[in-house]
Structures are given as C-alpha cells and as structure tokens.
C-alpha cells in the first residue's frame, strides 16, 4: 500500500527546498482524497510551484500552505474530514504545533528578542490551518516513504525550473503512474555515512542526524546526508561552490 488512512481523512504529503539556500526553490504536495464529499479531479492530485529566490524553510512552509489552501478552496473536501499532513520538516511541525503560540504572544520575536524568520508564512499557515481539523505528522526524509520521495522529486524539479508532469486521477491510476515516474535526480536513500551542514558559509560534518539537526534547525542553512566517504567529499566540494 502507498499509505494507510481512516475513511474520513484527507492525506497530504508536502515538501520544499531551495538550491543554494537561498536560491531558486520549489515546493510540492500530493493530496489524497480518502474522506467524504465530492471528489475533485479524482482521488489523487499533485500540485507544485517555484520561486526564483527563496530558502528551504520558506518552501517547506509554502508547500503546506498551498496544500491546505487547495483543500480549503474545495469546501466539500474540508467538511467533516480530518486533514493529515505529512512533512519531513521538523521546522514546520514544531513551528505550527508549538513555537507559533509563543512567537505570537511575544509580538513575533524569538526568545532572544530577534524577529521571527518567515513571519509572513507562519501567520498565513496559522490562519489557513485554523479553519481545518489538521493533524501534523513528521516523516523521516529520504527513508523510502513513497509519497515523501515523490514530493521531493517534484519540488526538486520545480527548483531547477523544470516542468514535472503532475498527476490527477484515481488511486489505481496513480500507483501505475508512480512506477513509471522519474525519481529524484539526487536520491538520498541508504544508511548514512555522515551528515554535512553549512551555516553562514561554515561547513561541518556530523556523525548523526541529531547533531546536524541541532546545528541547522531554525537557521538559514544547507545540509545533506552523505552515503560514503567519497560522497561526503563531493558534498563538501559542492557546498564550497555555493
């Protein structure tokens, strides 16, 4: 199965990223109508878009916003259905379920009295998600989850100013479509050798994802999983070119 669901759920997978961070970016979402109400263009629809200059975090937020906007604009989808949003961005999940409440109370300032990054998108996400019954669910990135890999592929294509083929149709047709659809040009599946991060131009390597995440969370950063020593060297070299 591609996914599991309750009969009154709308399932969303979303992702976003930027090449260079900041740089050209893309976002994507897959929306699965497994709830009640009129079907809109079939049971499954893919959406996505691009921006010329943006960041990873802005594209992650944009993907969630646009997916929920699609549901909101189709009222029968939003009525009496649980909206389950899957994202590999802990920034998005923690932000919308925890951090935004403190930021709002503090006049959109962080604990260190600095302006909250991406305030415009956080406020937009709060407004649109507040109209729906949303469950936020973190999914580990590049771990073989089919639909998470799919939105990663679409977002990457948009970030490279390509025009990926977006699906709209039945679940049965979608399964066949995924079998023939192009995969991400830079898959990160497999056991990690290390993680490489770049913050403010400084590159570091980390033995675990937890160490890498602690460094990059909430910052304008670039990071990537290395699958081997050779891969680590290549990622570092690529980062130095940015």
Question: What's the short story on this structure?
Answer:
This protein has 242 residues and is an alpha+beta fold. It has helices at 56-73, 75-78, 90-105, 119-129, 146-159, 171-180, 209-216, 229-241, and strands at 9-18, 23-34, 44-54, 82-87, 133-138, 168-169, 194-199, 202-206, 221-226.
Structural write-up:
The protein contains 8 helices and 9 strands. The longest helix has 18 residues, at 56-73. The protein has helices spanning 56-73, 75-78, 90-105, 119-129, 146-159, 171-180, 209-216, 229-241; strands spanning 9-18, 23-34, 44-54, 82-87, 133-138, 168-169, 194-199, 202-206, 221-226. It has 2 domains: 9-180, Nucleotidyltransferase, domain 5 (2-Layer Sandwich); 194-241, no CATH class. The protein has a 6-stranded mixed β-sheet with strand order 5-4-1-2-3-6, sandwiched between helices. A 3-stranded antiparallel β-sheet has the order 8-7-9, sandwiched between helices. The termini are far apart. It is of the alpha+beta class and 242 residues long.
Could you name the key traits of this structure?
alpha+beta, 2 domains, 6-stranded mixed sheet, Nucleotidyltransferase, domain 5, 242 residues, globular, 9 strands, 39% helix
Strand and helix map with partners:
Blueprint: E1 9-18, E2 23-34, E3 44-54, H1 56-73, H2 75-78, E4 82-87, H3 90-105, H4 119-129, E5 133-138, H5 146-159, E6 168-169, H6 171-180, E7 194-199, E8 202-206, H7 209-216, E9 221-226, H8 229-241
Parallel strand pairs: 1-4, 4-5
Antiparallel strand pairs: 1-2, 2-3, 3-6, 7-8, 7-9
Helix pairs in contact: 1-4
Number of helices: 8
Whole-number total of structural domains: 2
Distance between the termini: 40 Å
Structural class: alpha+beta
Task: Kindly report the name of the CATH homologous superfamily of the largest domain.
Answer: Ribonuclease H-like superfamily/Ribonuclease H
User: Which sequence of strands runs across the widest sheet?
Assistant: 5-4-1-2-3-6
CATH topology of the largest domain: Nucleotidyltransferase, domain 5
Largest sheet: 6 strands, mixed
What's the number of extended β-strand segments? 9
One letter per element, helices H and strands E, the order comes to EEEHHEHHEHEHEEHEH
What percent of residues are in strands?
25-35%
Helix amount, in percent? 25-40%
CATH first level of the largest domain: Alpha Beta
Instruction: Tell the overall outline.
Output: globular
The averaged pLDDT comes out at 86
Question: What is the name of the CATH architecture of the largest domain?
Answer: 2-Layer Sandwich
